[in-house]
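Batch job 17 of 40 flagged for manual review because the log was empty.
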Amino acid sequence: MKLIPSTIRDRKVTMMKGGVVVVTLMLAFGAAASASDPAPAAKDSANHTAQKAKAHHWYQIGEASWYGIRFQGHKTATGEAFDMNALTCAHRSLPLGSWIRVTNLRNHKSIFVRVNDRGPVPEDRVVDLSYAAARAVGIHGLAKVKLEPVRGGDPKLAQELLAQLQIPVLPNAHTGE
């Protein structure tokens, strides 16, 4: 093999050395380029998974009942005394202390309530509302409702929850309004 002298940065190198440098640089750039290619794909995959998780929205549709004076002052699952005039409910599995929006599917009135008890006892019902919560959505016996959890980071639900705090929930006993 014949070596041809060449100059790189004022240094005399043979083409054999220059060829080794070129091949080394090509391998380094090639390795760097191929090493950076999978990262965006993994990032895209993570974003896609996060979007799928975000798109999943839990809700429950079923029959609601209510409980009131008979249980007034009784201890709830959270340990607090049941207050029939508070906006609370009993649910079988939602975390105690969590908030849900209950919508009466007949008249589309909705209210936010806090889960503070376990129940309802009848298996064909999904939630047992306090007297005040049931009255607020127009339930006097049983009614078909939709339950939606209040999630952190949902500005629309937060606005609706704040709006609920600014309006009277129960009708005025004297005027009926």
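Reviewer: the log was empty due to a logging misconfiguration, but the result itself is present. Confidence is low (pLDDT under 50) at residues 13-40. Unflagging and moving on to job 18.
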